[in-house]
Amino acid sequence: MDSVSFEDSVSSDSSGRTHLESSARTSAEPSARTPLSAAAETGLKIVVVGGFGVGKTTLVRSVSEIRPLNTEEVMTQAGVGIDRTAGLADKSTTTVAFDFGRISLTERTVLYLFGAPGQERFWFLWDRLFAGTLGAVVLVDTRRMSDCWYAIDRLEHHKTPFVVAVNRFEGDTGAFSLSEIRQALALSEHIPLIDCDARVRSSGKNVLITLVDHLYELAMAREMTP
After folding, report:
1. Between the N and C ends of the chain, which has fewer C-beta atoms within 10 Å?
2. How is 195-225 classified by DSSP, letter by letter?
3. Could you tell me if residue 147 is left (phi over 0), alpha (psi between -120 and 50 degrees) or otherwise beta?
4. At residue 79, does pLDDT exceed 50?
5. Where is the composition biased (Low complexity) (predicted)?
6. CATH number, domain at 105?
């Protein structure tokens, strides 16, 4: 499968919205796993990052057309005093390598989704996951907002475009507005910031639509730059 530039692989309609939007509306439910089209020839790599327990595995699982690859293991006493689990009393498993899923962008182009492990002791894997990445999604939990700072820092270091999605957990019904979150994370205005529910497939797809639109706009801006 070839690797090409974003502008060569994505088409848009007159409104500028990519064809992932129609896919988000018509794709089968998660229980119907879709085989890769024989016409698929271009793969685009997307990384989902964020703090521990923020919902990365859940997002990849909810949007993937295939049965996602998960490297979750049961948490043990070995992580006590090392892993930051405050506010995550119900969390019993953790990703130890990465999650992997796939979703079709067009018949010939697919997004490959990689969910990065959130625990600090696995952050050394992130730079390797970022290699060849077209763009990224940073998931945020407003109860532990500082956990996403490292992800944003590494993405900016690698000059990887990204969007920020606030995964609203139960009990967080807008305690912080998006403008307040943007200010807290020191996000520039050109970086998309949206709400999401990682458990809901349509919401997860909307996050990917937002990222793809952002990448398309950046690609068009580069083309217009003399």
Report:
1. C
2. EE-TTSHHHHHHHHHHHHHHHHHHHHHHHH-
3. alpha
4. no
5. 1-15
6. 3.40.50.300
Closest CA to 98 of 73, 127, 69: 69
Which residues constitute the domain of residue 169? 6-29+39-224
With DSSP H G I counted as helix, E B as strand and the rest as coil, what are the percentages for the chain, rounded to 5? 35, 20, 45
Query: Alpha-carbon distance 10 to 109, whole Å?
Result: 8
Residue 102 lies in a domain: yes
The Cα 151–Cα 162 span in angstroms is: 10
CA dihedral 201, 203, 204, 208 (to 10 degrees): 130
Q: Residues 102-153: pLDDT tens digits? A: 998 888 888 999 998 856 666 677 777 778 899 999 999 998 899 899 889 9
Instruction: Could you list the beta-strand ranges (E) of the chain.
Output: 42-50, 72-74, 93-95, 99-104, 109-115, 135-140, 162-167, 193-196
Number of structural domains in the chain: 1
- Closest C-alpha among 103, 108, 10, 91 to residue 48: 103
Nearest one of 115, 130, 121, 73 to 207, comparing CA atoms? 115
Q: Is 91 domain-assigned?
A: yes
Dihedral angle at the C-alpha atoms of 219, 63, 169, 176, nearest 10 degrees? 20
| Residue 34 belongs to a domain | no
Closest C-alpha among 114, 111, 101, 106 to residue 44: 111
Q: Which three-class secondary structure state does DSSP give residue 35?
A: coil
Tokens of 189: 């205005």
Task: List the structure tokens of 135.
Answer: 């763009």
